[in-house]
Amino acid sequence: MNPNPIQLFDVESSTFTYILVAPGGQDAVIIDPVDHNVERDLRHLERLGLRLAYVLETHAHADHVTSAGMLRERTGARAAAPRGCGIAPAERQLDDGDVLEFGAGETIAVLHTPGHTAGSMCYVWRGNVFTGDTLLIDGCGRTDFQSGSADALYDSVTGKLFALPDATRVWPGHDYKGQSVSTIGWEKRHNSRLANRSRDDFVKLMGELNLPKPKLIDVAVPANQNLGLPHGA
To answer: Sheet containing 121-125: which strands, arranged edge to edge?
Structure first.
């Protein structure tokens, strides 16, 4: 059995944060942390005796502010982010095909999956894929801002994510229906936006969503491009 990630939830933004732990060791990686949960997340690390190696972002979020900068300052961890998201202060600027290493030989494979944003990435670790806002459980992220593209998202999901083994567990960046985990196989067969849908139908569907602008986008995106810290910090 592959080790399970620790899944944490932010009620305000319906955001999942994940802690990955190197089996048999103390090194850990946190994915998509939220600013007002920084003390909660630090308590989890302390309680489990973990040493944070990396703070990892899937993209520059529009609906919440990251705690990446604060966690880096408090723990000595390094920040890692997609190169195409403009998160300049991150020590590791990740490209498609990169491998992030932590612990005793633990590796996280980096997949560039544009569509929700131009720089969005997903991360594969031990039979798990952390999909950010690219692929949600029975859904997907919107494509109408931050250089989003329904065409690109269709290619990212069908060409890269659906090419993973069916048993790969899908851990999304958000959920709004009380769901927590899925599999690539289930999403390929049942995802209401993507399963058995042609590219043209998907692009048409995404173009007709008419979703409201995220309330925090004008604050969150610039903040997240600075790892959630005030500019100049």
So the answer is: 99-102, 106-112, 121-125, 128-132, 169-172, 182-183
Residues 60 and 217: beta-carbon distance below 8 Å: no
Q: Using a cut of 0.90, tell me whether the model's pTM lies above it.
A: yes
Domain ranges of the chain: 6-209
Domain 6-209 has CATH 3.60.15.10: yes
For residue 156, count other CB atoms closer than 10 A to its CB: 25
For the stretch 84-138, pLDDT in tens is 999 999 999 999 999 999 999 999 999 999 999 999 999 999 999 999 999 999 9
**Within 13 A of 74's CA, how many CA atoms are on the CB side?**
16
Question: What does the alpha-carbon distance between residue 45 and residue 111 come to, in Å, rounded to a whole number?
Answer: 26
Phi, psi of 171 (to 5 degrees): -115, 105
Q: Where are the alpha helices (DSSP H) in 15-123?
A: 38-47, 68-75
